[in-house]
Write the structure tokens for this entry.
Amino acid sequence: MSFFFEVLIGGLLAGVMYSLVALGFVLIYKASGVFNFAQGAMVFFAALTFVGLQEKFGLPFWGAFVLALAAMVVLGILTERIVLRPLVNQPQITLFMATIGLAFFIEGLAQLIWGTNVRRLDLGIKDEPIPFLLERFDMALSGFDLIAAVVAGVLVTVLAVFFQVTRVGRALRAVADDHQAALAVGIPLKQIWAIVWSVAGFVALIAGLMWGARNGVQFALTFVALKALPVLIIGGFESVTGAIVGGLIIGASEKLAEIYGVPFLEWLVRMLFNISLTLGGIELWFAYVMALLFLLIRPEGLFGEKRIDRV
């Protein structure tokens, strides 16, 4: 039984990190209705900038963090002014295609400035089993996964409270509901968008540090955003709470399917077709199958708003 809980808790910890990536999408979508395809590229740019500053200038952690954060804020503001603002009131597909082009530009810019080599990112956190849990409960849970999940969970919670309680958060919700009405009551739409893109850059930096320390700072970090898609589909594109719950569902189910789903599928194939197969890689596609099922049953997600189109 301890092994089951080890797998389940490990999946939940990974799910919190998925939620962190998904949060960047949710912030942009809530404020502007744009699915920011460039969020993965922003994660890559943030992590590579942080490591590049440390390597080139010998900066300590906090020095590199502050400068990388400043770079992400500038990137977010420039994106809003140069890309988003001129396309206000354009069709959604136009904005989506613009973020695709932005993703390629950010990826190329990051590698042009800092190079294309794979970098190691050391946050000083050991990726080793926690001794207490190993000795007391026979559960090999990584200390890095636990700390990364705590950091991601705290950040997600703080931002959720910020956008629920503060004046900026209320303005964001008003902008998300109706741009024209928000402008009519005096909400500075352009400033709200600039703030949201800056916060999305900050989230990308934290996600880049966590995932970069786990997998190395390399171009593959851009594909981390793909893991957020099932989270968004299940939780809802407009809900911070949905990003959290969706991440936990995906993380836990993915790990459980990886350990227990493969033997079940092998047994099922053997019983139905009398064929012995060695299956694997279920963790690569299981989350997307779950997302597809949610699209068929509840396309707006668990916490998304139902839309009724009158014709």
